[in-house]
Amino acid sequence: MEKFGEKYVQDNPGTVGDSECIYLLSYSIMMLQTGLHNPSAKQLGMGMDDFKKQARLIKPDFTDEFLEQIFYTIEKEPISLKEDDEARLKQESSSANSYKRKQEIFIKEGQGLAKRGYELMKDKKKTT
To answer: What span, in angstroms and rounded, lies between the C-alpha atoms of 63 and 55?
Structure first.
């Protein structure tokens, strides 16, 4: 994470802060991600006000607009690896009890297969 902060500042000088600020903000965003989307950490939770307080300990002059944009982006679009999504879907599939839920999962799996197929064809087209 520290190297990420250094690289970000090198590539984007003067945008958010120094490398330590980027490192700490990134860590705070990971905590937000966990608080919003990890079922095991839901009881800990992190609301908008909590996130703003934590971020302002890093840099007091972060604007509300900047922090709200981060919060709502993470809330709407969780950070996730494709492998994690696939494993989660398999887990849901094996524990689905109702016909409707199984149908929803089947549709998600089909969409994932179609998307991966499209990406493979796009990559193949680039190499030919």
So the answer is: 10
| pLDDT for the residue 48 | 94
71 near 54, Cβ under 8 Å? no
Nearest-5° Cα angle at 36, 95 to 51: 170
Closest CA to 62 of 77, 73, 47, 51: 51
> Apex CA 47: angle with CA 45 and CA 53, to 5°?
115
Structural tokens at position 19:
């490398």
Q: 26 or 104, which is more confident? A: 26
**Helix (H), strand (E) counts: the chain:** 6, 0
Largest CA distance in the chain: 54
Helix (H, G, I), strand (E, B) or coil at 45: coil
